[in-house]
Amino acid sequence: MSEPIRDAVTRNTRPATLPLLPELRLRLVTRDAPLWQATEADLTRLGITAPFWATAWAGGQGLARYLLDHPEEVAGKRVLDLATGSGIVAIAAMKAGAARAHATDIDAYAIEAARINAELNGVSVDLVLGDVIDDPCEDIDVVLAGDIFYDRSLSLRAMRWFRELATGGMPILVGEAGRYHRPKADLMPRAHYDLTENLEIEDDGVRRTNVYAVRGYEDPGKERLNAGRR
What is the pTM of this model? Predict the structure, then answer.
């Protein structure tokens, strides 16, 4: 645990509850949070390159909601939350009954933010700083990823790994809100949710978010395309 990073996260964010996820409480950049008004110089002084961890991105919100609505997807299982950010998906998985949640990110601030948010929600999450794409996931039962397709190279790399895991029978669930680099194939719709409020720094007008399973893992007899409609 890094006390300077922990202090920076807590001082510059505020606890908030999202309309789509009233069960959870997260420290985010809200309009009354110092981070909202922070300049580039302020971020540099704090060592923050991009505070993605302080935002509840739409894909993560949708995937977290889906897990809470369908706990059977993760109950009693070991899950991996890729690029955890605020920790929202890993926290929801634990609330849904996961046996263990491993949350990974390449940003030390995200790791600390996820730790703080897990504590805020009364759950325990194992946090890993680093890039785990291409890991064989031998001790994982389900892979979860929210908002992973924001960059072309990352999208291609992650999806190649997802397909390899899915071919081996690994369930992979993805939360995504229509980003440009989203793969056009091998994503099977599970649910969609409408957001009534968008607490994002990058307010791009997204009001609908989707949950997909990566092709190669199918749950026979379960049709959930509209299960998440609200």
Answer: 0.85
